[in-house]
Amino acid sequence: MPAVLFVCTANICRSPMAAALFSARLRADGLRPEEWLVDSAGTWAHDGQAASQNAVLAMQKRGLDLRSHRSKTVSSYLLEMFDLILVMEPGHKEALQVEFPHLAERIYLLTEMVGEHLPVEDPFGASLEEYEKTAAEIDAYLEKGMPRILALVGFHGKVSSG
Asked: Where is the active site (predicted)?
C-alpha cells in the first residue's frame, strides 16, 4: 500500500489540508484513496487538537471534510510507516532529517515535487481568504507534482487523465 505523510508545524492547518487535497487528487486521477495510507502530522504538534476553523472552512468550500481531524506529533514509529514524507518548510525537512537520519531519503519539501525549494507559508491566524490561497497553492503543487510523488512511492498502476 503506497503511503504518504504530510508534515507541517502544528498539524492543524497546512498538513491536514494537504492530506485531504491529496486524497481528493488521487480520486480525481482515477486512483482509489482507500488503497493508500495518507495522513498528516506536525513537528511541534499538541496531540488531539482539531484543525483550525479556517482550514475546516477552506476545505468545506472544496467539498472536503476536516472536522474529524486530530493533530499528532511526528515520531519514528509514525514516520517509518510512510514511503514518502512531504513537508511544508525547509526547517521541517532539516529537523526531521537530523532527528531521523535513517529516514532522510524519504523526506522532501512538497515544492520539491515540482523542482522548487520554496516553503508553503503557514496561514495560521490569517483570514479565510489566506487559507483558501494556501489550499490552492498546495493543490497546485500536488497536481503538478503527482508524477514525481507516484514515482517516489513506487506506484506503477494506471492513472487516468481525468
From this structure: 8 (nucleophile), 14, 122 (proton donor)
Q: How high is the pLDDT of residue 162?
A: 47
**Does some domain include residue 24?**
yes
The number of folded domains in the chain is: 1
Of 42, 41, 31, residue with least CA distance to 2:
31
Residue 157 lies in a domain: no
Element (H, E) at 85: strand 84-87
Q: Which residues fall within 8 angstroms of residue 58, CB to CB, at 6 or more apart?
A: 17, 128, 131, 132, 134, 135
**Does residue 158 fall inside a structural domain?**
no
Cell output for 2 = 503506497
Question: Which of the following is catalytic: 8, 13, 39, 106?
Answer: 8
Catalytic residue among 14, 39, 106, 139: 14
Task: Confirm whether 159 is domain-assigned.
Answer: no
* pLDDT averaged per 10 residues, the chain (length 162): 97 98 95 95 96 98 98 97 98 98 97 98 97 98 97 81 50
Q: Is 8 a catalytic residue?
A: yes
- Residue 75 domain boundaries: 3-152
